[in-house]
Amino acid sequence: MTTVKIDLPDDQAAALAAKATARGISAEQYAREIIEEDLKDQESKRRRHISDVIRENMSDMPADILAQLPKDGASQHDHYIYGSPKRER
Fold this sequence. Notes:
Layout lengths: L9 H14 L3 H20 L3 H9 L4 H6 L8 H6 L7
Helix pairs in contact: 1-2
C-alpha cells in the first residue's frame, strides 16, 4: 500500500472531518472510500457502449415526448439537425 499526502485548505479539511465523523469513520477512511467510488465510477463509464449511455439518458423522458420524436431520426439526422432535404432511402 502506498501512502499519499494531500494538502487541503482548512475549510476542506474541516468538511472532510465532519463528513467522516457523521459516518463514524476516520477522515482517511472517508477519503479512501470517496476515491475508490470515483475510480470505480470512471472505470464503469469508460467501458459503456454509447447506445447504453443514450438509452440511460432517455430513460427519464416522458412517454408523450418520446412519442413525438421522429421515427427516422437516425437515418435522416441531417434533415432534423441542419434542415437539409430528406434523403431518399
